Amino acid sequence: MPTQRRRIGFLPRSEVQNIIDKICIINKLSQSKVTGILVEEALRSRGVLNTSIKKLSYEFYSNNGDALSIPNKKYNNEIPMVEDNNHLDDESINDEVQMINDYIEFKFFKNIMNRNKSRIKE
After folding, report:
1. Alpha carbons 29 and 58: distance in angstroms, whole number
2. Rounded CA gap, 68 and 84, in Å?
3. What are phi and psi of 89, to 5 degrees?
4. What pLDDT score was predicted for residue 53?
5. pTM, whole model, 2 decimals?
6. Which of 7, 14, 56, 57 is most enclosed, with most CB atoms within 10 A?
7. CA distances from 55 to 22, 73, 75 (A)
8. Collapsing DSSP states into helix, strand and coil, what is residue 89?
9. Distance (Å, rounded) from C-alpha 76 to C-alpha 88?
10. Spatial distance between the Cα atoms of 109 and 120, rounded to a whole number of angstroms
């Protein structure tokens, strides 16, 4: 019976592929399953996906830079807290504006240097 879902192609960097391979071997899961778990976990952490359905969650741990995974076979029905970072204090806003102004000045200076450099070569 055909499914309504579409296949999503994913070609990760070699470093990411190695991590996924290690997770697959250790947990005896397919690459498709691991990729799906990682995508759902990323969406939940960003607050895009909020499900209260109880699902088996896997927690992936890193040990000394090596990708190791330990399946956490507990049921998880918690909805992650999404912090509201839209309200910044005045000092943070002033720092941000100053950084943007410094960047604009740097880009302006860089353009002037590039123009002068091309004139010197001529």
Report:
1. 11
2. 32
3. -80, 165
4. 45
5. 0.40
6. 57
7. 23, 10, 6
8. coil
9. 32
10. 17
Name residues of the chain where pLDDT drops below 50.
52-56, 61-63, 65-75, 77
What pLDDT does residue 56 have?
47
Q: What pLDDT was estimated at residue 11? A: 80
At 43 the pLDDT is: 80
CA triple 109-114-115, angle to 5 deg: 100
Which single residue is written with the structure tokens 């005045």? Answer: 90
Q: Do residues 29 and 23 make contact, with C-beta atoms less than 8 angstroms apart?
A: yes
Token output for 32: 């498709």
Report strand pairing: 66-70 vs 55-56. Answer: unpaired
Quote the pLDDT of residue 74. Answer: 46
Q: Tell me, what's the pLDDT at 85?
A: 57
Cα 15 vs. chain centroid, distance in angstroms? Answer: 15
Domain boundary assignment for the chain: 14-76, 84-122
In the block, which residue shows the tokens 């939940």? 44
Name the residue type at position 92. Answer: S
> What 3-state DSSP class applies to 75?
strand
